[in-house]
Amino acid sequence: MSIEPVARLLEPGRGPWDPEASDILVCRGVRDETHDVRTFLFESEQPARFHYEPGQFLTLELEIDGRTVNRCYTISSAPTRPHLISITVKRIPGGVVSPWLHQNVRAGSRIRAVGPLGDFTSFRHHASKYLFLSGGSGITPLMSMARTYHDLAEARDIVFVHAARSPADIIYRHEQAMMSHTNPHFRAVAVCEADSPGEVWGGFRGRLSLSMLQLIAPDFLEREVFTCGPAPFMAAVRAMLAQAGYDMARYHEESFDFGTLMAEEAAEAAAPAVPGEQVFKVEFTKSRRVIECGPDTNVLDAARKAGMRLPSSCTKGLCGTCKSRKLAGEVEMTHQGGIRQREIDQGMVLICCAKPRSDLVIER
Length: 364
Ligand code: FES
Known about the structure:
The protein is of the alpha/beta class.
């Protein structure tokens, strides 16, 4: 008798997913979370289970309009349900990747992915009480953590505060309500800036503030805090906690906010060159630019200093977003898992953590 596809996923003896051996993920389904947020659920092409720490991310390698684009997304599923892995993506109008995912990825779609990677996880910071603070689609890694503790019936006291534009923008609203209903250790609170056309918001209104936090979680100074969201949201949270005298050694944050990161890093990269320093030429074939880069400078930093805008996210060799083909030359590269050995063997580099050892030609 043939095995039904669903039963196949549950077959015993599936080993851990190894993207070095097979990096293809096959979409099994797509779920609408809100009017502009969707969850994409994937299985591995080869029989496998997904092992990761909640809060980690995947880097997707997508072919969009004839270009390879690497983009990292935090995993929204929980490792307690290892048969599928999911990402939850907000469609950013005018963006490159998120509209493409919303338009093109359907059940049966195949994509490449690397990971799971990242150290933003409560599993590395054990505490009896957590405060999760999310803004917009920054909810995903925190939801992975919350789902994990919920599935494991862990008696961790979790207060989960989510900031959304309006009630229609609250991601996982019903699932969080269900978790709050059934789990006495879990409490979800949303803060909305405005009403939706179809709903007048009766909860906390405005931007998350210290006075709101004191009402929602009066014991927040005792909690391990994890924050994810746009950079301005996280900056506001940091300022708020510092003002309250929170021990920032117990504060953890994550963001893959491209626009902000690029702006921040461009400013950082504007450090002056050291006079007399040896420089190498780096040619970017697609942009038709040639820049100079010192031996102690990462190629990405030098490119930004020269005014180029190249895709990047983590800037520390972790996410794979800046992966580029090196057509000529030698680099010294210290990465943190964002590239596979076989890709290095094929001439790929992560330009955020590659320093030139000769003149270079990069396909970008
Ligand atoms: S930007 Fe993340 S690996 Fe280079």
